[in-house]
Amino acid sequence: MGPAAHARKLTNPPHPPNCRSNVTSITWLTKSGVSTHTGKGQRMQHITVTVDGTVCQSEVEPRTLLVHWLRGDLGKVGTVVGCDTSNCGACTVIVDGQSVKSCSMLAVQADGSEITTIQGLSTADEWHPVQTAFKECHGLQCGYCTPGMVMSAVDLLGENPNPTEEEIRDGLHGNLCRCTGYHNIVKSVQYAAELMGGNK
After folding, report:
1. The domain that contains 136 carries what CATH number?
2. Last-in-domain residue among 120, 155, 180
3. Boundary-marking domain end, from 78, 93, 120
4. Which residues are CB-contacts of 176 (< 8 A; sequence separation ≥ 6)?
5. Residue 165 pLDDT > 90, yes or no?
6. Cα–Cα dist 188/79, whole Å
7. Cα–Cα distance between 34 and 78 in angstroms, integer?
8. Same domain (yes/no): 40, 69
9. What are phi and psi of 20, to 5 degrees?
């Protein structure tokens, strides 16, 4: 596997410790500073994150997962919760230019970052080419995995505008689909590469 392929693997930060355990104090280091909280009195952490082009400021519990903050606080319900164990990739978003499974990252770890969700890809007038390709090639069935597949494909094509079929399958291996058998998903990414000027 070449360096480029290795570089685009989905980032899986370590799961946070269970705040309901007997741990008495936990300290998190974020981009804007340090926050300490105890098991009894939760200290809220102030975060500032740019999400889909909008600067969002929020007070969050240090144990809050990024996916739950995006969905619950910001209403970004296009980012779906599939497994909460970082296996399926349905919750994939792009953080500072890299695809990340948002169920495996804390909201406080995103402080100071720029995040793009599936809801931030298109404009009011135009879909992103990857979204268009998934529609035209029918790269979905039930659609539950589709947001994560699309976000991973956007990241893949950003790093490799002209991927081979093998590179596409390798690039999406962190995203699970239980319906399609992946054939049309691969076709969708190939067509998206054409739309974006890659496969010429």
Report:
1. 1.10.150.120
2. 120
3. 120
4. 82, 87, 88, 89, 90, 145
5. yes
6. 20
7. 31
8. yes
9. -95, 5
State yes or no: pLDDT of 172 exceeds 50.
Answer: yes
- For 1-34, the DSSP string reads --HHHHHTSPB-PPPPP-TTSS--EEEEEETTEE
Range scoring the smallest mean pLDDT among 2-6, 40-44, 94-98, 109-113: 2-6
Indicate which CATH number applies to the domain containing 60.
3.10.20.30
Please give the angle made by the CA atoms of 111, 112 and 115, to the nearest 5 degrees: 85
103 closest CA partner among 74, 68, 128: 68
CA–CA separation, 2 and 163 (whole Å): 13
> What mean pLDDT comes out for the span 170-179?
94
Is residue 83 located within the same domain as residue 112?
Answer: yes
Instruction: Tell me which residue of 121, 99, 116 sits closest to 172, measured CA to CA.
Output: 99
The whole-model pTM stands at: 0.78
**Higher-confidence residue: 198 or 27?**
198
- Classified as helix, coil or strand, 58 is strand
